[in-house]
């Protein structure tokens, strides 16, 4: 079962967004166009536009309006990836070389700026002031999250709360806003768009926890980047936090550093996998998914509601 | 005569904006706050907020609304400075160490992102959709300009048109938009806010040409950064373009590179100063100022109009 089967009735509209994304990054400036295209063509699940469209289906759905919101959210997401790769010194993203690896940090920074600016431009089709307030608030949070993430690296004394706040800003917020803005653009009542915000938020939390689990349990082939990379780079994810509770492991984890020999790292990962860290992480992810599904209960039945539900369930089971 | 004497009747409101700028960058995240404060406290002319206020004075003036636009424009300007310093590898800005020098490129990138996000947040107080369209369009242009600027470095075969397009994006556009958005927030007619846009555009062009002249004629003490730095870094400014027309100089200019000995550079600058490059650059700057003043003719008399005129005249004579 593939993710996109869950919303196949949106196929034409999603193709429309893909086409628009290509137009969005078009530019006379060759360097900018090449760098943006490089990232765009690496693909991605386009899950944010999908949430935008599905949420809009709960209200007045006009693809000519709503596609702009979908494009905007995907561009913001892509811009944040480009800037993240500068920080992480990442060489690979979605199985391709990153912009910073292919060009340099400077080009990556400005390409991110440009994609972000284009996103804002697309958003101006929505005239409701509340949409712009929601978006700008969440972007501020996103940026705070990005810099907090630098500060939190290799900080092994952090709490579960630190982790949850970090993934909220890093992932859950933009998915929540995708759902909410789709609904706002569809002119639904605040009751509905706030409910969809919460749905997106819970789904986003579950999604990121799953991502953090997969970084331990999956393979380089499936991830498009080396497995175990999070810990190596000092990202203290949920499985790491649980593993830190094992006295034997805690000391070894606290000594992780970027230039650690591959073999030592592989052994540490194997040992972490033998604790209950993954199981406990999955349980928390499942709790978030349950909350997400609960939010959907308040919506009238529709094909969009069914898709949202199926996507949430899919995320709970995904293996890549 | 100091610039701020020309709009002393706005003193209280400008202090209000300064206070708000400090609030704007406040954050629980220490690193972010320190980095932003570092730049904010380096000062600056805050000329963009001044234009916002003066333009708003041509319409309905409510400081509680308009100050947010002023703060937004200054934050966008500051964000672009922070990102520019990453590109330029600049160590000094406004006589202080840059964020990238004090911390690193990563912190500078995210601090810029954060300031920019805060700017958007401030702008949401303006509900007219046209304001957001104007702003997002100009930010896209700004970003294209930033990356084009990298490509244009040490390209000594570029034309006057390349230069003018570059300074339009780099400087004139944001000043034009400051004037226009102040006026839009003041709810004036399109005729007036478009006129103020053109005024700001012409003033901005003159301002940047003057800046590019001062980089040759001023001292490190007055500039807050080493004189002649533009050419050394491969920025082909207007005086350089005119100097390139002198066959004797052209060849020497084309051999400029970043690691050039200080003495060779000093000699080259002295020789450029002996051509008519500065005089011809000043003439073009004056032509833009004349156009700016001409736009003001269409406005009814007011204290704000007088200030706008005085600022334009001041820019034509400024020596720092």
Key structural traits:
homodimer, mainly alpha, 16 helices, globular, transferase (chains A, B), metal-binding (chains A, B), magnesium (chains A, B), Polyprenyl_synt (chains A, B), GerC3_HepT (chains A, B)
Describe this structure in words.
2 copies of one chain form a homodimer. Chain A has 320 residues and is mainly α. In chain A, 72% of the residues lie in helices and 1% in strands. A two-stranded antiparallel sheet of chain A has the order 1-2. The model of chain A has no long low-confidence stretch (mean pLDDT 90). Chain A binds chain B through residues 27-32, 83, 86-87, 105-107, 109-111, 113-114, 116-118, 120-121, 123-124, 127, 129, 132-133, 135-137, 139-140, 142-144, 146-148, 150-151, and chain B through 27-32, 83, 86-87, 105-107, 109-111, 113-114, 116-118, 120-121, 123-124, 127, 129, 132-133, 135-137, 139-140, 142-144, 146-148, 150-151.
Total helices of chain A: the number is: 16
Distance between the termini of chain A: 12 Å
Query: Which strand order spans the largest sheet of chain A, edge to edge or round the barrel?
Result: 1-2
Q: Percent of residues of chain A in helical segments? A: over 70%
Instruction: Give the mean pLDDT of chain A.
Output: 90
Major interchain interface with per-chain residue totals:
A-B, 41 and 41 residues
In angstroms, what is the radius of gyration of chain A?
19 Å
> From N to C, what is the helix and strand string of chain A?
HHHHEEHHHHHHHHHHHH
| Class computed from helices, strands and strand pairing of chain A | mainly alpha
Percent of residues in β-strands of chain A: under 5%
Rough shape of chain A? globular
Topology, number of strands of chain A: 2
Biggest sheet descriptor of chain A: 2 strands, antiparallel
The protein's oligomeric status is: homodimer
């Amino acid at each position: 079962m593939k993710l996109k089967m869950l919303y196949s009735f949106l196929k034409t509209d999603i193709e429309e967004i893909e086409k628009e994304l290509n137009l969005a990054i078009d530019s006379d400036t060759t360097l900018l166009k090449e760098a943006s295209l490089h990232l765009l063509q690496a693909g991605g699940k386009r899950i944010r536009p999908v949430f935008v469209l599905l949420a809009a289906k709960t209200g007045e759905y006009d693809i000519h309006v709503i596609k702009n919101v979908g494009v905007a959210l995907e561009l913001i997401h892509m811009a944040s990836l480009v800037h993240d790769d500068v920080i992480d010194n990442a060489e690979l993203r979605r199985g391709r070389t990153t912009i910073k690896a292919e060009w340099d940090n400077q080009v990556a920074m400005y390409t991110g700026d440009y994609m972000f600016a284009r996103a804002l431009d697309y958003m101006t089709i929505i005239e409701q002031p509340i949409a712009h307030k929601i978006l700008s608030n969440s972007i501020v949070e996103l940026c705070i999250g990005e810099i907090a993430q630098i500060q939190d690296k290799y900080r092994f004394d952090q709490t579960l709360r630190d982790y949850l706040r970090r993934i909220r800003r890093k992932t859950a917020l933009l998915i929540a806003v995708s759902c909410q803005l789709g609904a706002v653009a569809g002119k639904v009542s605040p009751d509905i768009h706030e409910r969809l915000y919460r749905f997106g938020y819970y789904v986003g939390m579950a999604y990121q926890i799953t991502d953090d689990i997969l970084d331990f349990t999956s393979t380089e082939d499936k991830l498009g980047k080396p497995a175990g990379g999070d810990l190596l780079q000092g990202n203290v994810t949920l499985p790491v936090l649980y593993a830190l509770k094992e006295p034997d492991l805690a000391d070894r984890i606290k000594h992780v550093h970027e230039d650690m020999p591959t073999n030592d790292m592989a052994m540490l990962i194997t040992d972490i996998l033998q604790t209950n860290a993954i199981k406990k992480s999955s349980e928390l992810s499942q709790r978030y998914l349950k909350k997400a599904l609960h939010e959907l209960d308040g919506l009238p039945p529709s094909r969009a509601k069914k898709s949202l539900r199926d996507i949430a369930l899919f995320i709970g089971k995904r293996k890549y």
